[in-house]
Amino acid sequence: MIKGVKILERVYFGLLVLIMGLVLFNHYFVSGRFDREALVSTVITAGLMAVAYIVYTLYKREVMRNLEELEGLRRNKQDLEGKIDEAFKYIGQLNVQIEEIRTIFSGVKKLPESKSELRVILDFLSSKVLSVAGSSWTCLKIVDLANYRILAEHTKTRGESEHDVQAMKADVSARMLIANSLPKEYCIVRSAHDNLDFAVYCLLPSCDLSKEQKVFIRAVVNQLEMFYLIFTNLSSQRSEANKKNNN
């Protein structure tokens, strides 16, 4: 297409030069000689044609510059539209994650006083992790840091991933979690507090978690850490009360 336009442009300029030559030398073709008046007329005509060509060249250059600026503006517009779309998607994801974090703190209406109530909370929080991470399974583990024991754990799966979960349980021990020496096919998020005798771990199949997803999952394990601390304190208080009643 562009090649054809260039050919037509060359033909146009060739015809224009031919016409200009006929105009300039028209007097000579008619009378067969040049007199002073004809020479002046020819020079003036040639000058006007040269000025017209210069104006045309400058105009064309300006048009090309404007077209390039328009193309640049069009590309910038597309880039800005893409960035705006990405920004809205990001804001949408943040809104979803904020809502999920809000439900972590407001979704549990009763503090755990028994192991069955603790299992309900474990199931609720693992569902939230599975929803945000988008993985095929997740496992929450509460580990005794001193005795290398798993105090409680809960696994949530989607689809046919039970075999992968069983393999994970066989591969991952409490010592490995504490030492952070897991196989490469797993990723882990640990609770943040170091002054407790237990820690909460969230295991997932190897995945590329975003910064926002990690923040959300860390909020989950920290909340579970708080729930388990309350559970152990309530259990201790209940045991002491039962001892006093028995005495």
Helix and strand succession? HHHHEEHHEEH
Overall structural class, as computed from helix and strand content, comes to alpha+beta
Number of helices: 7
Radius of gyration from CA coordinates: 40 Å
CATH architecture of the largest domain: 2-Layer Sandwich
Helix content: 55-70%
Distance between the termini: 101 Å
Count of discrete structural domains: 2
Biggest pleated sheet: 4 strands, antiparallel
CATH class label of the largest domain: Alpha Beta
In CATH, the homologous superfamily of the largest domain goes by the name GAF domain
CATH third-level topology of the largest domain:
Beta-Lactamase
Beta percentage is 5-15%
Mean pLDDT: 79
**Are there runs of 5+ residues with pLDDT below 50, and where?**
none
Biggest β-sheet: strands ordered side by side in the sheet = 2-1-4-3
Task: Summarize the structure in short.
Helices cover 69% and strands 12% of the residues. By secondary structure, it is an alpha+beta fold.
Question: Can you give a write-up of this model?
Answer:
By secondary structure, the protein is α+β, with helices and mostly antiparallel strands. The chain folds into 2 domains: 2-77, no CATH class; 107-246, GAF domain (Beta-Lactamase), CATH 3.30.450.40. 69% of the residues lie in helices and 12% in strands. It has helices at residues 2-24, 26-31, 36-106, 115-133, 162-171, 174-179, 211-246, and strands at residues 137-144, 149-157, 186-190, 198-205. A 4-stranded antiparallel sheet has the order 2-1-4-3, sandwiched between helices. The model has no long low-confidence stretch (mean pLDDT 79).
